[in-house]
């Protein structure tokens, strides 16, 4: 008994004209019958207009929410203790009175107005360099515990805290305060 073969020598279903590999290659790009057509012509659309369940705006027929409402929903899902970076509300603690602009400027000057991770100078940033606590303790105002970072690098240091503490201690923990 002879097996059913495609023109490319692959086995194919008896009922099919081509094997799955050849069929898929003919359905790509402009050869696809749905190429350039609107969703109304899709066989899956079935003429229904889907609306966002939160704001009632029209959405793609495959979705329940618009992109904006879906983003708000996801941000609510990872709020507070459901967020992997949650530290029990420590960020809401106030900074000490002595952590003022004068101390921050002293640290920036000590670091030659450069980010201590990537080396970008402050004049190339859109705002002043951030002064970051190496041990993440807001009350530790020892200048050796403070380092200047640009916005991008300061954002990176919010996750994986133990890794960043080790890196700062190895690379920059022994800075001069002069």
Write structural notes for this entry.
This is HNH nuclease domain-containing protein. Residues 102-155 form the HNH nuclease domain. With 178 residues, this protein is of the alpha+beta class. The chain has a domain at 99-172. The chain is 26% helix and 7% strand. It has 5 helices and 4 strands; from the N terminus they run αββααββαα. The chain has a two-stranded antiparallel sheet. It has a two-stranded antiparallel ribbon with strand order 3-4. Strand 1 and strand 2 (58-59) form a beta hairpin. It is elongated. The protein starts with 19 loop residues before the first helix and ends in a 6-residue tail after the last helix.
Question: Topology, please?
Answer:
Elements: H1 20-26, E1 50-51, E2 58-59, H2 67-77, H3 101-110, E3 130-133, E4 146-149, H4 151-156, H5 161-172
Antiparallel strand pairs: 1-2, 3-4
Per DSSP E runs of 2 or more residues, the count of β-strands stands at 4
- Proportion in β-strands: 5-15%
Amino- and carboxy-terminal Cα gap: 91 Å
State the order of secondary-structure elements, H for helix, E for strand.
Answer: HEEHHEEHH
Radius of gyration: 29 Å
Average pLDDT level: 80
Q: Report helical residue fraction.
A: 25-40%
Low-confidence stretches: 173-178
Query: How do the strands line up in the largest sheet?
Result: 1-2
Global structural class: alpha+beta
Rough outline: elongated
Largest sheet, described in full?
Answer: 2 strands, antiparallel
Tell me the number of helical segments per DSSP (H or I, 4 or more residues long).
Answer: 5
């Amino acid at each position: 008994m002879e097996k059913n073969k495609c023109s490319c020598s692959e086995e194919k279903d008896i009922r099919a004209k081509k094997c799955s590999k050849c069929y898929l290659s003919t359905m790509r790009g402009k050869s696809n019958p749905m190429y350039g057509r609107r969703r109304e012509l899709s066989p899956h659309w079935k003429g229904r207009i889907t609306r966002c369940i939160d704001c009632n705006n029209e959405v793609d027929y495959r979705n329940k929410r618009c992109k904006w409402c879906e983003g708000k929903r996801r941000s609510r899902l990872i709020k507070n203790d459901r967020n992997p970076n949650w530290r029990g509300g420590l960020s809401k603690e106030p900074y000490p009175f002595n952590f003022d602009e004068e101390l921050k400027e002293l640290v920036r000057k000590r670091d030659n107005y450069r980010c201590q991770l990537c080396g970008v100078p402050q004049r190339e940033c859109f705002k002043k360099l951030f002064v970051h606590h190496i041990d993440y303790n807001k009350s530790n105002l020892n200048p050796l515990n403070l380092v200047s970072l640009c916005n991008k690098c300061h954002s990176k240091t919010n996750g994986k805290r133990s890794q960043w503490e080790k890196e700062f201690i190895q690379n920059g923990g022994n800075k001069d305060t002069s």
